[in-house]
C-alpha cells in the first residue's frame, strides 16, 4: 500500500517552461519573415472605389504601383488640392510615368520583365483626365497590363 | 588570492518576455493582404496595319459625361440598367441561321438591327476628362460583369460550374499543373464564345 500513498504528499511539480523561449522565437521568426514592410508612405489620399468583378493580384514582385489622389493635408499647402500622381515617395507629373515604369522594369529580373502588371491605386474622387494621361504614357512604354485596384464591394456605392 | 567560482549564469528568465514583445510587435504590424482589382489590357499604341470595317450595329457605344450620366447606344441610361443592356447586346446573335456568323448558343432576341454575334460585338467606352474615377470603375465593373454573367451561363451549360471559379483556379499558382492544363482549355473555350472586346477611346476634353 505504501507504494500508492507516496504520491499524495508530493507537491504538484512545476511545468517546465524552459522551451517556451524557443517556441516564441520560432513564431517570431515566422512573422519576421512574412512581414512585408510598406515601402512607400502615402502622400495622397487613397480611398479606392468598390467593385465586385475583381481578380486577385497575385505575386507582388510582378507589380508596379502608381498612386493617384489629392495630396494629404500636410502637403496641401505646397501641392494644392488637385489630384496628383505619386511614384515611389515623390509627387510626379504624368509625363514622368513612362520613365518610372521603364526604370522599375529594369530593376526586375529578366524573366519577369514581360509579365509585369501596373496597379493603379486611384482615389475615387480623382478625375478621369489624369488617368487618361497615365494610360497614354503606359501605352507609350508598352506596359499594357493594368489593374485598377479596388476594394471588394458593391460597385454602386461609388456613385454616392 | 581567493579562488573564484565558476562564472555566474546569465539569467535567461526574461528572454521569453523579450521574445514575446517582439512577437507582438510583428503580429500587429503584419498585414497579409493581397490587392485585388479589375484587370484590363490597354490597346497597343501603334494602330493595326489593316483597317477593319466594323458595322455600326456591332458597336455598343457607352458615353459617360462629367456629371456621371450615362449614354448607352444613344439613350440616357441608369447605370443600374447598364449590365442588362450590355448582356442583351452581346447575347443578341442577330446573324440569320446558316451564315458563318450564326451564334447557336445565343439566347437573345436575334434582332437583326443589333449585334451579329458575340465574336463581332464590340463595346466602346468613352468618358470625359472630368468624369469621376469612381463612376468610371462602376461602369467598367458592370461591363466586365456582363461578360462574366454570360460566360458563367455558358460554363454552367458546358462544364457545370462557374467561369469565374474556373478562371480563379486556373490563375491560382497553387493549383497543380495537370489540373491547370485541363482548365486552360476550358477557360479558353469559354473565352472564345464570348471574347471580351471592350475598346476605350481617348477621352474628350469638352
Automatic annotation (TrEMBL), chain A:
- Membrane topology note: Single-pass membrane protein; Single-pass type II membrane protein
Q: Supply one GO CC term from the record.
A: plasma membrane
User: Any one Gene Ontology biological process term?
Assistant: protein transport
Give one GO term, molecular function aspect: transmembrane transporter activity
Keyword annotations: Cell membrane, Membrane, Protein transport, Transmembrane, Transmembrane helix, Transport
- The principal localisation class reads membrane
Q: Which InterPro entries match?
A: ExbD
**What are the transmembrane regions?**
12-32
Q: Where in the cell is it found?
A: Cell membrane
| Protein family | Belongs to the ExbD/TolR family.
Q: What is the protein name stated in its UniProt record?
A: Biopolymer transport protein ExbD
**Which species is the source of this protein?**
Arenibacter troitsensis
From TrEMBL, chain B:
The major lineage groups are: Bacteria, Pseudomonadati, Bacteroidota, Flavobacteriia, Flavobacteriales
One cellular-component annotation, GO: plasma membrane
Give the protein name, as stated in the record: Biopolymer transport protein ExbD
Assigned protein family: Belongs to the ExbD/TolR family.
InterPro entries xref list: ExbD (IPR003400)
GO molecular function ontology, one term from the record: transmembrane transporter activity
Instruction: Give the record's membrane topology.
Output: Single-pass membrane protein; Single-pass type II membrane protein
Signal peptide coordinates? none
Top-rank taxon, per record: Bacteria
| Key words, A-Z | Cell membrane, Membrane, Protein transport, Transmembrane, Transmembrane helix, Transport
Question: Which GO BP terms apply?
Answer: protein transport
- Does the entry feature the keyword Ligase, yes or no? no
Which subcellular locations apply to this protein? Answer: Cell membrane
State the organism named in the record: Arenibacter troitsensis
Presence of keyword Transport: yes
Amino acid at each position: 500500500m505504501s507504494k500508492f500513498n507516496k504520491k499524495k504528499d508530493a507537491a504538484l511539480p512545476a511545468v517546465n517552461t524552459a522551451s517556451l523561449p524557443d517556441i516564441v522565437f520560432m513564431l517570431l521568426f515566422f512573422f519576421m519573415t512574412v512581414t512585408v514592410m510598406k515601402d512607400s508612405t502615402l502622400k495622397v489620399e487613397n480611398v479606392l472605389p468598390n467593385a465586385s468583378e475583381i481578380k486577385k493580384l497575385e505575386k507582388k514582385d510582378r507589380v508596379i504601383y502608381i498612386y493617384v489622389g489629392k495630396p494629404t493635408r500636410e502637403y496641401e499647402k505646397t501641392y494644392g488640392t488637385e489630384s496628383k500622381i505619386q511614384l515611389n515617395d515623390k509627387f510626379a507629373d504624368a509625363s514622368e510615368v513612362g520613365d518610372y515604369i521603364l526604370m522599375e522594369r529594369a530593376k526586375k529580373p529578366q524573366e519577369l520583365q514581360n509579365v509585369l502588371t501596373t496597379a493603379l491605386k486611384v482615389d475615387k474622387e480623382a478625375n478621369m483626365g489624369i488617368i487618361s494621361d497615365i494610360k497614354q504614357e503606359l501605352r507609350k512604354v508598352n506596359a499594357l497590363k493594368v489593374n485598377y485596384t479596388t476594394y471588394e464591394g458593391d460597385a454602386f456605392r461609388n456613385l454616392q | 588570492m581567493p579562488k573564484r567560482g565558476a562564472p555566474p549564469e546569465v539569467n535567461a528568465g526574461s528572454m521569453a518576455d523579450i521574445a514575446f514583445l517582439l512577437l507582438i510587435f510583428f503580429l500587429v504590424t503584419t498585414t497579409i493582404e493581397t490587392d485585388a482589382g479589375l484587370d484590363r489590357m490597354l490597346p497597343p499604341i501603334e494602330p493595326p496595319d489593316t483597317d477593319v470595317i466594323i458595322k455600326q450595329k456591332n458597336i455598343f457605344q457607352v458615353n459617360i459625361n462629367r456629371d456621371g450620366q450615362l449614354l448607352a447606344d444613344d439613350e440616357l441610361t441608369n447605370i443600374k440598367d447598364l449590365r442588362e443592356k450590355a448582356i442583351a447586346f452581346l447575347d443578341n446573335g442577330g446573324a440569320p441561321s446558316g451564315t458563318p456568323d450564326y451564334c447557336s448558343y445565343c439566347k437573345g432576341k436575334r434582332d437583326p438591327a443589333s449585334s451579329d454575334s458575340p465574336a463581332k460585338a464590340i463595346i466602346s467606352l468613352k468618358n470625359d476628362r472630368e468624369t469621376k474615377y469612381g463612376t468610371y470603375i462602376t461602369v467598367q465593373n458592370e461591363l466586365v460583369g456582363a461578360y462574366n454573367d454570360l460566360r458563367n451561363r455558358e460554363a454552367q451549360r458546358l462544364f457545370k460550374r462557374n467561369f469565374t471559379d474556373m478562371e480563379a483556379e486556373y490563375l491560382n499558382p497553387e493549383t497543380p499543373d495537370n489540373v491547370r492544363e485541363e482548365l486552360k482549355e476550358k477557360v479558353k473555350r469559354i473565352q472564345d464564345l464570348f471574347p471580351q472586346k471592350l475598346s476605350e477611346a481617348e477621352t474628350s476634353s469638352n
